[in-house]
Structure formats: structure tokens, C-alpha cells
Amino acid sequence: MALISKCPLQWISCLLYWHTMIVYFPTFLLQAVESWLVDRAVLPIENSLGGSIHRNYDLLLRHRLHIVGEVKFAVRHCLLANHGVKVEDLKRVLSHSQALAQCENTLTKLGLVREAVDDTAGAAKFIAFHKLKDAGAVASSAAARIYGLKILAQDIQDDSYNVTRFLMLAREPIIPGTDRPFKTSIVFSLEEGPGVLFKALAVFALRQINLTKIESRPLRNQPLRASNDTNNGSPKYFDYLFYVDFEASMADQNSQNALRHLKEFATFLRVLGSYPVDTSMI
């Protein structure tokens, strides 16, 4: 995750920082936007190989920020080491857990012990600072330039189609339009009962609105609930929040009607943002 200012060019280039910045306290970045220290934050939300980044979904609800854009970024992992170190010298490799998972086949073939750290750039900085001879890092080519490391191997990810989706967050929402494709992200909760989730999703299907993502996360303040409070022997259920992305703008009357319908039986509903769809790959 990275911080950026208002400049659109910085919004694009900052995606590189997720692979080159050390991020120990992700919540600090969103707090910095809320506190007017910076104007925007960029949050990685899902990867085509590693799946959803659950911690960041939780952050979307915890902070009162709005999604104002998205970018899908092709990830290219490299195996880095200090100069003079060869692949056969390596015993272990450091990186973010998702990066290690995305390079599992290559790292297994090399017989390297994997050690997870906070992020890819942090791994590169660690082996450079400590001048390690038996350890490498999975990180970007930009991290190699920044920390003076040698690239032992490029494109070591298991799948060439390795894409991370990022969200741009701001204090104020943008005004949604209908002049180009838009996506809207919402989060809601429901009462326990048969077919309740089906009914919730049906409000979109009935209006021919396509869903592109659905993610469930535990409702932390009340994780367990009995089906009948008056019966101590009744089964208990986990309460969940449902994060949904759908292909429509909040300026579209169809979307407004769908959410109005959803509000009839949702116990909680919040629009996280309505923003232009990223239709190109960087």
C-alpha cells in the first residue's frame, strides 16, 4: 500500500511502491488520509493467484474513506541477492507471504526455505542491510535498483497472468457518471435465515446487474448469534459482512433501485464507492 497526492500520474506510479516500500503499519496509511496528511491512499485488495487480501477488506469498513478508483497491475517477481551471491549459495528466501505463494513452484525447485516478512521491499532491504550471503529476496526489479541488489532470476511467478487489483481511497467520493463503465462497491449484513443471501443477490439479478466480486468477512463485534435468543439450546451461527462489487454506476437509476430494495431486509448497508472501471493493464 502507498500514499499519493492528487496528481493522476503519481496514482499510476505509486503502484510500484507496493513492491518497493516498507509498510509495517497499514492502518497508518489510511489514518494519514483521514488526518489530511495526504490526499490519497492505494490499497492492494486482491490478487489473481493469492486471492483476496482479507486484512485490507477489514480496513475498508474500519475507516471512513471512499473508493475513487481501481487499477489492475501485472506483478513480475524477481529473485534478488547481494552481489557475488549465486543461486546455489542460497539456503532461504524472504518475502511477503503472498509473493512467496505466487512463486511456490520456482522456490520449491530451488529447495529454498521460505521466510515470510511484512512486504517484498522489506525483504530486499533486510538482506541488503545485513549483507546476507545465504539468503535471497522475492521482490521487484525496482527494489533491486533501490537497494543495490543483483537480479538472479526474473519472472519467477508461477503464472504469467499474475495481477494485483488496487483501490484508490480518498476522503470524499467522486461524482459517479454514466459516460463510461463504472463499478460500485458495497458492504452489507443480513439476518440469519433460509435464502436470505439469495434474496440479497437477487436484487441485482432481477435488474440485470452483473456482480464481479463477493467476499464474506466475520462481523467482529458479534461473531456468534443464537437462532433463538429464548432457547439456550438453539444452534449458534456466525454473523458475516458481505462485500460486493457490481458493474454499474450509482448515477444509474437501476443501481439506486437495487440498493433501495436491498435496504428492505439488510441489517446494515454502506456504499464504499462508485468509480470508473479499469479496462486496461499497466
From TrEMBL:
One of its GO terms (cellular component) is chloroplast stroma. Its EC number is 4.2.1.91. One of its GO terms (molecular function) is arogenate dehydratase activity. Pfam families: PDT (PF00800). Keywords: Amino-acid biosynthesis, Aromatic amino acid biosynthesis, Chloroplast, Lyase, Phenylalanine biosynthesis, Plastid, Transit peptide. It is found in: Plastid, Chloroplast stroma. Residues 185-276 form the ACT domain. It catalyses: L-arogenate + H(+) = L-phenylalanine + CO2 + H2O. Residues 1-171 form the Prephenate dehydratase domain. One of its GO terms (biological process) is L-phenylalanine biosynthetic process. It comes from the Eukaryota. Pathway: Amino-acid biosynthesis; L-phenylalanine biosynthesis; L-phenylalanine from L-arogenate: step 1/1; Amino-acid biosynthesis; L-phenylalanine biosynthesis; phenylpyruvate from prephenate: step 1/1. PROSITE patterns: ACT, PREPHENATE_DEHYDR_1, PREPHENATE_DEHYDR_2, PREPHENATE_DEHYDR_3. Converts the prephenate produced from the shikimate-chorismate pathway into phenylalanine. This is Arogenate dehydratase. It comes from Vitis vinifera.
